[in-house]
Amino acid sequence: MKRMSIIGVAFVASIGIAFQSYYSLQASPAESTLIETRQQVDNEPITVVFDLGNVLIATNKRAALWHLGPRNVFSYLIRNRSIGLMKKQFYAALNRIDGSDSNPYGAKDPDGHMLPNLMATWLQGKQPNAQLLEKVVHEIENHPEWFSTKQEQHIITAMANFTFNPNNLINACRPINEMVSFARQCKEKNHRLYVLSNWDPESFELLTKKYPELFKLFDGVVISGQVHKMKPDPDIFSLITQKVPAHTCIFIDDQQENIDAAQKAGMHTILAAPKRALISKAPDMQKLQAKFKQLEKLCSCTAPTN
């Protein structure tokens, strides 16, 4: 009798477990949607977001200096002993023209110097290149008192012609082959690829025509001159995160302020630091790839890893 009662209890328990299992499998529509949504999130591909300048595209410094005139540059170096001073004087002239000493977006150049507001406006596509160049050259030529020598004035004029003339600028641009190969490897892994860069619209159009095969790799492109926003403004990052989940993004940029903004937007990030900063600003590929492998495993998390 005791044995029969034990068997009876076991039978009832097994029936209960079977019914419990059956009903647990019959999820409500809301629960089914939740499960499906979780699966979709888990299956989201990785999105790799590339900056252009000093990440995918380099400026040939020799070509840039040649545009300024070798004799002028040599004489300038004898007098000032610093090429970096040229850029400071160029920025100072632009700030005088605009009547400001910074930009409201916190945008900097790759060397960490605050961009003049005139350049920030140009990079957002709010002023045509030809119009801006004419204005800048006119003001420089009519204000010799801004410069210590006539030669210095000529060099700053040449810098304006190089920077704001799309043909001159793009002629000095070339792809960074190691990074282009890396982008292709990402594509072969079925990662989504995006560009997010501060670039004026006219020069960018020439760049895409010069290197069409490069831009065919990308699923989307966000350029400051086309969307009228610029890094590190949070609004430009939202143009990416509105399309793909932020936690699936790995953002690669060479400037710390942009990295900080991307992290605030919820992205994973890699600072593309150069291997030999004095010689080339091309990224250190060994460090970049090591960090990327780590982030490939982590980008499905809900919070980025610094």
What's the gist of this structure?
This protein has about 300 residues and is an alpha/beta fold. It has helices at about 1-25, 30-40, 60-70, 70-80, 85-100, 115-125, 130-140, 150-165, 165-170, 175-190, 200-210, 210-215, 225, 235-240, 255-265, 285-300, and strands at about 45-50, 55-60, 175, 190-195, 220-225, 250-255, 270.
Q: Can you walk through the features of this model?
A:
The structure is a single chain. The protein is of the alpha/beta class and about 300 residues long. The chain folds into 2 domains: about 45-60 and about 175-300, 3-Layer(aba) Sandwich (Rossmann fold), CATH 3.40.50.1000; about 60-170, no CATH class. It is built from 16 helices and 7 strands. It has a 5-stranded parallel β-sheet with strand order 5-4-1-6-7, with helices on both faces. Strands 2-3 form a two-stranded antiparallel sheet. Strand 6 (about 250-255), helix 15 (about 255-265) and strand 7 (about 270) form a beta-alpha-beta unit. Helix 4 crosses helix 8 (about 150-165), helix 5 (about 85-100) crosses helix 8 (about 150-165) and helix 7 packs antiparallel against helix 8.
